[in-house]
Amino acid sequence: MLTRWQACRSSGEVFQYETRVRRADGQYLWFLHRNVPQWDDQGNVVVWYGASIEIDDRKRAEEALRKAFDEIQTLKDQLYKENLALKEEIDQTSMFEEIVGASDAIKRVLVLLRKVAPTDSTVLITGETGTGKELAARAIHKRSRRERNAFVAVNCAAIPSSLIASELFGHEKGAFTGATQRRLGRFELADGGTIFLDEVGDLPAETQIALLRVLQERELERVGGAEPVAIDVRVIAATNRDLEAAVKAGSFRSDLFYRLNVFPIRMPSLRERVEDIPLLVAYLVQRYASKMGKKISGIDKRTLKLFQTYHWPGNVRELQNVVERAVILCEGATFAVDANWVVLASPTSAPSGIGLASLADQEKEMIENALTQSRGQVSGPLGAAARLGIPRSTLESRIKSLNIKKYRFRSS
């Protein structure tokens, strides 16, 4: 402080400092001491004026503010650490997009997905139709180092056998009639990312050989090409067929099966995870209600019991369709399905799909009634969509799905 005072005396700057003074009663008070110079006409300091002001209240307020700041900083650091832990926990439980459930069966699947996702291993996902095999594949891709690159899904059963090689591996110009230019296949489009081969068990024999080479050599040849093309693609395959039985029958190559079956994951049927149905229904109801602009705040307990009794041959996909249609038909705040719409039977009794057909018929009848009242008009305040209380785009989608000829209502 002495050095500062000497410097201020030399420069003529104001000198001030804070100090604590002990009173006679032993209590300390804070004071601000301020020294201001007086200059003469020649610019010399002729006198210093000093004053002291008690600032004890201000110092106490500053100390309280400093303590509060320290507490906030401590809480902030703690919150940051808790958020990191919570984020990790959330990532572990909701990293799998729409794979909803808490049953032991689905938990076992999630454990496998977590373990294999960071690797580059080939995965074979098996399970019945509608169990969510593609969702599992997308979850693996999302949590892998390839997540920023393409995820390319191919339904091998939906492509004619004459075109599947070109679709997967591409072709050169002039490779066949109609090949007017070179075309990249799905594997090259997925380079650096992940390719999902759904229904891989339906691949023809010659394509199985080409796929085996890709898995072994990490390179392919386009149809009509002579030069190998190096690729970096992770392969995830899926099937609802028994590939081991297909190998024994000679319809699927054993060497390809072993290449694909590096890390097998079996998706459980909905019958094996009945306890997940309430969670799935709640998720799907809110999803479709939000999409259709409806407010549904509750789910009828009897409906849940009916759903848990039904055997769901179409698994989650069938449940999804039933919930979507029922949300369209729902007119109140509680989601419910009439018992007559779903045939509650064991797999050995009434044929599957009857309840689903009844629900579709009910939906179709309601849409047709609304189209009759609106004379075929879908949009607008007097249109069928407004009468049903759903967005126009949703109604158009359902009209197309149910094969309703809306134009015939314009003359009614």
Automatic annotation (TrEMBL):
NCBIfam families: sensory_box. SUPFAM superfamilies: Homeodomain-like, P-loop containing nucleoside triphosphate hydrolases, PYP-like sensor domain (PAS domain). It comes from Candidatus Sulfuritelmatomonas gaucii. Residues 99-328 form the Sigma-54 factor interaction domain. InterPro entries: AAA+_ATPase, AAA_lid_NorR, Homeodomain-like_sf, HTH_Fis, P-loop_NTPase, PAS, PAS-assoc_C, PAS-like_dom_sf. The keyword Methyltransferase does not apply. The keyword Transcription regulation applies. Coiled coil: none annotated. Keywords: ATP-binding, DNA-binding, Nucleotide-binding, Transcription, Transcription regulation. This is DNA-binding transcriptional activator. PROSITE patterns: PAC (PS50113), SIGMA54_INTERACT_2 (PS00676), SIGMA54_INTERACT_3 (PS00688), SIGMA54_INTERACT_4 (PS50045). GO terms for molecular function: ATP binding; sequence-specific DNA binding. Residues 15-67 form the PAC domain. Gene3D superfamilies: 1.10.8.60, Homeodomain-like (1.10.10.60), P-loop containing nucleotide triphosphate hydrolases (3.40.50.300), PAS domain (3.30.450.20). One of its GO terms (biological process) is regulation of DNA-templated transcription.
